[in-house]
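thought: fold this chain, then report.
action: predict
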Amino acid sequence: MLLEVSYALDTFYFLMSGLLVMWMAAGFTMLESGLVRSKNTVEILTKNIGLYSIACIMYMLVGYNIMYGDSSSSIIPGLSFLVSGDNSVADVVAGGEDAPYYSNISDFFFQVVFVATAMSIISGAVAERMKLWTFFIFAVVMTGFIYPIQGYWSWGEGFLDDLGYMDYAGSGIVHMAGATAALAAVLLLGPRKGKYGPDGQVNPIPGANMPLATLGTFILWMGWFGFNGGSELKVSDVESANAVAMVFANTNLAAAGGVVAGLITARLLFGKADLTMGLNGALAGLVAITAGPDTPSMLLATIIGAVGGTIVVFSIVALDKLRIDDPVGAISVHGVVGIWGLLAVLLSNSDATLTGQLVGIVCIFGFVFVASLIVWLILKVTMGIRVDEEMEYQGMDLAECGLEAYPEFTGSAVSRK
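observation:
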């Protein structure tokens, strides 16, 4: 009876953690919608709900089995189709050392919202100039194959796991992977029209809705408790419960440290408390702690987040100087700070090694970048990846989706009467 209660509790905790991570999809949607111009809002909304749905279906069809299925190689995963509905309840009731302590289907649900998170990162970086259906086709490949293959190398007990690579909840596996695929796309896409001028001039393109962007950040902050907390995988014994409490506290403090550091850094560099840098500072702190939220003290977690919040400001400025246009700062937040998060594990986890972390960074970045670049190139040659100049100028909402987010402010509603 006690085993059954433990099984039910851990399954419920897993599902509720997955639910919080699913809610992060709303956070990404609101954040991106707030940081783009109003003429591209509906396209952003469509893209986010579309990518989430594609990720769920592709991970069910093939992705989950690639990442966690049987394989005779630690590098090349196996390939099989459709997630099994077997929960192995009989084994749980019977007990035994190898009995699972939560439902297998709850594990699938928890993992599928992670792959959707990785795809959401790409959405923000390519905003305001990528063709909608090109993006959706890439989402099929990314969530069904690219993400699961590199995930297999570590969480699926592949060669990175054998080397001692440590990434508790996915600073590299989820965040850096998503940012890497985004970088490959942005390099092929080029910047938005008017973003850069001669002699290194950078022209700000303000977002349409800062309250919405701030709401999105708070939603992501909240969802991250499921992202990191759920990665403990169970909560039904004293040790696991204490670990979950520490993960929650460290996740929260890292985000807070990132906000404060981001605002201070922006004040020193620009003379203003830049809200967007504060928001990205929060996300940077969260990404930074994700690789190892279970081992630092609360003070160290705050410092790790603060370093992330500082790095992200300098990274965003540096990418602009390189004329790499990322409307929401996704590459800096999830990629550059993701690398910092993987290295920060060494500060508090004696089992982690510099070699293991560096090999993991290089392998994940190298594979995802090359694979993504190939797919983006194929899409560019066959159907194009960027909208034409007129569509970009007019906005993608009407051209791609046939409606506007705020028609009463543009006069379109009146003109159609």
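thought: worth noting. The chain has 17 helices and no strands.
final: tokens above.
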